């Protein structure tokens, strides 16, 4: 293997380091919202550019790694100690998709004209916390050892609690308290898993652990896997560990809800993929994952049917579609893993877009409750912005949701087991019911006259308060419909376009996810790259650049 250039080492660190530095700068610039916004957008732009370059490099050359520190560990377990960051095709794709979403959402948030000192979203707190959240997300995808992954989760937890409770309203504090308690339980279980892993293998480096676990008795391996599955299952909102999500996300401001719904559960899904393929290949827990995936799909979508608030409805659909990703992980084939990776990328974009559209609906009509909404078809642009991601989520051809689901169903059919066929049936039912709940939103919020809504008068009385001054996009001439800032509409349109791009370039994207799936199933390149960099960090005179 040829030496790794030093500039690639810098590139790998940028998605984590730049947001952290920017968070410190924005915190110091708390009295200057304009500076905060500029620093935030520039930092996210730099991180996204670095991630796009890493996606190109991994596509062409495979896996890259860097070990920061590299202290000689002979006194402990004979291996180098340090922080290992690894970027392969899977990590690079997750970085690009996540940073695209984070950049669009922060522009959307700025477009909401959040002002320092308001009761809703004080910018001096919001943007630094948002950047810390970004650093935690990026580091989660790059982490090459369990403890670094744990630290990333804790960074996410701290920033998430601040963002969830912005404004300190009763509902937000209650939801934030529930979220923090569940997350702490998950963190304690994960910490116990880390201790168990270290006691079993003598290392927390994922590459070294993958080798040493092959020599561990099956019972011990399965017990360790079960502990990690519970910890990551809570993060990913896999049933029955998902009941916390619908009560936590809908109370937050629209940009916060969009980021949480689109990204945070996918960090847990990413950890499940990495654990399943790198540490515990062989399918010992596949049946458990299949049952969990099926129940996650069905329970989530049945919960969505019962909701009248769009935010809560979308939160339940979020849970249900996590089941598709667990389905792909559990089947364990190259095709199912590729389909799961593709579906993760699709769902991040589409779910985030839908929550951004709900924020526009609230500004437009004064409510997100189906009991109060109606007549939004008078706003054609808003109708289109909702309809495209709604059809995509429902899996209507030729959208990316359809492509991902067909690939998952094909992988299940190739597996051929009775449980796989049950999952295929559950997937089809979930997809049809998803289309039903999207159609329900469309008919009630857009086609129905507002006067026919049970509480339509309440929304009409508040809509006029949402009309803004300045450069806005007027979506209707009706006096009872609000206006939306250009900087809210444009990033939402960009997110819709990103979802369509995943459809239009579905072939090349699936080719990339195929390569990513090959890379995670065949562990050899990941392991050899990490161990070579660890050795070079411990003995730099004979290492790489």
Automatic annotation (TrEMBL):
Membrane topology summary: Multi-pass membrane protein
Subcellular location: Cell membrane; Membrane
Segments traversing the membrane: 6-29, 38-57, 90-111, 123-143, 149-167, 179-199, 223-245, 252-273, 288-306, 313-335, 341-361, 373-391, 418-439, 486-505
All residue ranges annotated as the NADH:quinone oxidoreductase/Mrp antiporter transmembrane domain in the record: 143-430
Record keywords, A-Z: Cell membrane, Membrane, Transmembrane, Transmembrane helix
Alphabetical list of Pfam families matching this protein: Proton_antipo_M
Membrane found in the keyword field: yes
Family statement drawn from the similarity comment of this UniProt entry: Belongs to the CPA3 antiporters (TC 2.A.63) subunit D family.
Protein name: Na+/H+ antiporter subunit D
Species in which this protein is naturally found: Gordonia hydrophobica
């Amino acid at each position: 293997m040829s030496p790794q250039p030093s500039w690639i080492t810098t590139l790998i660190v940028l998605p984590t380091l730049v947001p952290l530095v920017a968070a410190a700068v924005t915190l110091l610039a708390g009295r200057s919202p304009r500076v905060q916004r500029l620093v935030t957008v520039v930092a996210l732009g730099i991180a996204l550019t670095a991630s796009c370059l890493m996606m190109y490099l991994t596509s062409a050359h495979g896996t890259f790694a860097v070990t920061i520190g590299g202290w000689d560990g002979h006194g402990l377990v004979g291996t180098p100690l340090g922080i290992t960051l690894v970027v392969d095709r899977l990590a690079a794709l997750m970085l690009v998709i996540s940073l695209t979403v984070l950049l669009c959402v922060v522009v959307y948030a700025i477009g909401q004209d959040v002002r320092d000192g308001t009761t809703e979203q004080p910018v001096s707190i919001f943007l630094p916390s948002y950047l810390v959240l970004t650093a935690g997300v990026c580091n989660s995808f790059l982490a090459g050892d369990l403890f670094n992954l744990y630290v990333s989760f804790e960074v996410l937890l701290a920033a998430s609690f601040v963002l969830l409770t912005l404004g300190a309203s009763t509902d937000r504090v209650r939801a934030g308290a529930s979220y923090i308690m569940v997350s702490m339980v998950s963190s304690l279980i994960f910490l116990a898993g880390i201790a168990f892993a270290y006691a079993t293998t003598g290392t927390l480096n994922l590459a070294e652990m993958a080798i040493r676990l092959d020599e561990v008795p099956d019972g011990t391996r399965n017990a360790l896997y079960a502990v990690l599955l519970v910890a990551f299952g809570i993060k990913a909102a896999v049933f029955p560990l998902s009941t916390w999500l619908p009560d936590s996300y809908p109370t937050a401001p629209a940009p916060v809800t969009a980021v949480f719904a689109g990204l945070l559960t996918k960090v847990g899904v990413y950890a499940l993929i990495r654990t399943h393929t790198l540490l515990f290949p062989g399918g010992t827990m596949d049946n458990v994952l299949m049952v969990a995936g099926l129940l996650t799909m069905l329970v989530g979508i049945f919960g969505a049917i019962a909701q009248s608030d769009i935010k809560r409805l979308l939160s339940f659909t979020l849970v249900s579609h996590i089941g598709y990703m667990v389905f792909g992980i559990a089947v364990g084939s190259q095709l199912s893993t590729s389909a799961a990776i593709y579906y993760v990328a699709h769902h991040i974009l589409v779910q985030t877009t839908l929550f951004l559209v709900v924020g526009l609906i609230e500004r437009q009509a004064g409510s997100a409750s189906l009991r109060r909404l109606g007549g939004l078809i008078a706003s054609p642009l808003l109708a289109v912005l909702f309809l495209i991601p709604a059809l995509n989520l429902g899996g209507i051809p030729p959208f990316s949701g359809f492509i991902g689901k067909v690939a998952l169903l094909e992988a299940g059919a190739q597996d051929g087991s009775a449980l796989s066929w049950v999952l295929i049936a559950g997937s089809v039912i979930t997809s049809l019911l998803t289309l039903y709940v999207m159609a329900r939103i469309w008919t009630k919020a857009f086609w129905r006259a507002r006067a026919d809504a049970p509480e339509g008068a309440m929304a009409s009385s508040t809509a006029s308060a949402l009309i803004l001054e300045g450069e806005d996009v007027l979506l209707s001439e009706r006096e009872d419909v609000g206006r939306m800032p250009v900087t809210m509409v444009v990033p939402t349109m960009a997110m819709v376009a990103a979802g369509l791009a995943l459809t239009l370039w579905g072939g090349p994207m699936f080719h990339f996810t195929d390569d990513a799936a090959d890379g995670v199933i065949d562990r050899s390149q990941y392991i050899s790259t990490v161990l070579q960099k660890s050795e070079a960090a411990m003995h730099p005179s004979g290492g790489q650049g």
